[in-house]
Design goal:
alpha+beta, 5 helices, about 190 residues, rod-shaped
Amino acid sequence: NPVDLGSHSAILEFRNLDRSIYQWIDHWQQEISTLRSRNADLSTRYQTALGQLDAMTTSLTQVERDAREVRQRLIAIIQYAPIAVIEWRLDRSISVWNPAAEKLLGYAASDVLGHDLFSVIVPDREAKSMLNTWKNLMDLTGDHHSTHQTMTKDGRTVVCDWFNRPVMANNGTIISIISVLQEVLL
């Protein structure tokens, strides 16, 4: 059936179709406008987050530099300290042994690192007392200062004042013990 373009119903159909097409176009233009607005908002948020990330990265880089610098200072202090510095792990193995400890006790660091502190420099007669000191340090109940006989590599006994401190992790757990030894001159 050919459509009579002059008929009133055909004109109404075209007008309705035309109105529908304009509504459809208007709807999608609004959707596009909304998407552009959301895209602009997301782009702004992305740029803000990127700026914050850059600032955090810069800050962390500075913190890392500062930590390296502090670590280097501490290493220098330990290495050049005129008194013996020993760090021992929770299993009592020696992890730090400075040159002053080498001089006082006669053992090179390579001789003692990784070995049980008690088996290297604590004579049997001092083991019970030293174990009590160890227990109190682990329980955080004291014994930061103690005096013990200590064995040198050549078998001599040296009486030393031990100044002990637990090294704590950020969460409050003990990760090692630092001991500073000074010979007691009798």
